[in-house]
Every structure is written in structure tokens, then in C-alpha cells.
Amino acid sequence: MKKNFTIISNWKMYLDTIEELKFATINYDNFIKLTNSENKIILCPSFLSLSSINQIFKSTDICIGAQNCSTHLNGNFTGQISVESFNKLGIKYSIIGHSETRREFNESNIDIANKFSRLIDFGITPILCIGEELEEKKSGKTLDVLTKQLDPIFKIMENSYNKLNHLELLIAYEPIWAIGSGIIPDQDYLENIFSWLHKNFSGLRNKIVFTLLYGGSVNAENVKFLKNIKNIDGFLIGKSSLDFQEFEKIVKYGI
Ligand code: PGA
What we know:
8-stranded parallel β-barrel; alpha/beta; binds 2-phosphoglycolic acid
């Protein structure tokens, strides 16, 4: 049976804003052709291009997401971008808890949970990133780390099912040691983690819709292997999603 996949393209800060607009316009027709009943595609450009890229793909099936958001509602928070702005612009998704933003901005699991809460208040789907460092993997602590990252989110969900029932929750498992390294986890490791995640979230199945994604060095070569891992419903892709031909191969493999 064919599986449906959600594929998120995280543009990070690879392109400047002019290049981002060019990338979107040059590949516009091809991006549209990639969307069909089997694939959902979400592009996450930088903040500066978010509104324009959203305009470019308005009234198409390509979805647009932000790469991060502020925990705060509004006020004296220089350099921050509010979730309310996303809501007013019609941006439907936001990545939170990416290891690069956790690292750069010293974000705690509680900060991420506050962002989660803010997003669902405004009806925006969180793309929640979780994942362990190499040392944590080596010392067998992966599931403890993921539990610590997820616990505050589960607490918020317990009190907010009414806000979540029209949203899909996207959870991206991204081992930090796999991001940008060209290395991906082996089959047993992935199956174990995704079955654990699936078990954790399926208890809430009648209350939320969830999708489990893998991220970290996904490319046109390894996607064949990754698409066959049980309970992986999609991917969060950085570097290789900025090469349109490679991205197309990733999306189309198996269709
Ligand atoms: P990568 O990044 O595909 O370049 O490894 C993935 C991510 O950080 O989301």
C-alpha cells in the first residue's frame, strides 16, 4: 500500500532573501507539480521572506511555515517574531525546538513548551523538533532525553485538547549528530525510536492527529531506506531540499 508523506523543507539561513524569492519563483511550477494526494509539502523560508513566499504560493497546495517563533505575545521583545503575526499573514505552521535554535538561543524544554502553547492558541500547527546529542546516544540515554523534551508538551496538551482538535501535531525526531553530518541512524535504532514515539502519541489518538517525521541528512539516496521505516510519516529536510532536483527525487521516490 502506498503511504502518504509530509515533507518539510527547512531553508535555514542557506540563502539570502533575494535568493529565496528567486528559488521559489524559478521552481514555482515544479513545486506545484510535486503536491498531490500522496504528499504534503511545507516550505520554511527565513523570517524576512516568509510573507512574500506565502503570497507566492497563496491558493496552491504548497504550505508555508516559519522556522521559529517568540514565546511572547507582543511587547518589548527586540528581534522577536510573534505568533500573532503568523496568524494574521495566514502562515499555518512553525518549527519549534530545532536543535540549532535551542543551541543558538539557549532555549530550554520549557521555552519550547511555551512556544507550543502560543502556537496552538493561535491555531498554528507546531512542528516540534526533538533529538539527542551523540554522547547521549552513546550512553544509551536517547529515550530519557526525548522524554524530557516531550513531558512539558504532554502537560500542555492535557489541558488544551479543545485547541488541538482541529490541528495536526508534527513531531520531528532529529538526532543532533545526524543533522548536516551525512550520517543517518541504522534501521534498528530508528525503528525502536519511532515505535516508542508512536506508542507515546497513539494514546492520544482520539484527541489529536499526529504525524511523525524524521530529520537529519535526508537525501535522494537514503530516502529509499527511510521511507520504508515503520511509523515514519515524513521528513524534515535541510540542505538537500535547497537543490530542487534532489528535493524532487526525495519527494517522488516510491510514487
Ligand atoms: P539536514 O538538516 O537535512 O541538512 O541534515 C535537517 C534539519 O536540521 O532540519
